[in-house]
Write a structure and sequence with these properties.
Elements (H helix, E strand, L loop, with lengths): L5 H13 L2 E2 H7 L7 H13 L3 E6 L2 E6 L3 H16 L4 H11 L4 H19 L1
Antiparallel strand pairs: 1-3, 2-3
Length: 124
């Protein structure tokens, strides 16, 4: 799975949210000033070439849909980040994440609960 550019990721977010969308719908998803339709069409072509979206043809219109799940896309790239920048150590990543992201005590408590739930699931 190829990495998307920041703009492609933004467009992909709209596609994931809509599940299926035509070009005009996707343009409407963008904040003002709206991008040109040719710009969005170019992004869609590149994303189709990368294998992350597909489309159904209806006459002259294409309805786009995701070929990958959001969780799969980000999981792959987080794992790549951990491998490339944290010596493939999830613990180094977790330590960095909790120290450097300015999480509040409440957010750290929520994170702790998530970790504790996962521990309980895996013990079963």
């Amino acid at each position: 799975m190829k990495k998307l550019s920041k703009t492609e990721e933004q467009l992909m977010e709209y596609i994931w949210k809509a599940e299926k969308a035509f070009l005009k719908d996707l343009i409407e998803s963008f904040p003002e000033p709206k991008p040109a339709s040719s710009t969005v069409a170019t992004l869609l072509k590149r994303m189709n070439d990368k294998g992350v979206i597909g489309y159904h043809q209806y006459g002259n219109s294409r309805e786009y849909y995701p070929l990958i799940k959001k969780s799969d896309y980000f999981s792959k790239h987080v794992n790549s980040l951990i491998k490339n920048y944290f010596d493939d150590s999830v613990l180094q990543f977790a330590s960095f994440f909790t120290k450097e992201t300015n999480l509040s005590a409440q957010q750290l408590e929520e994170l702790k609960k998530i970790v504790e739930r996962e521990i309980q699931k895996r013990k079963k």
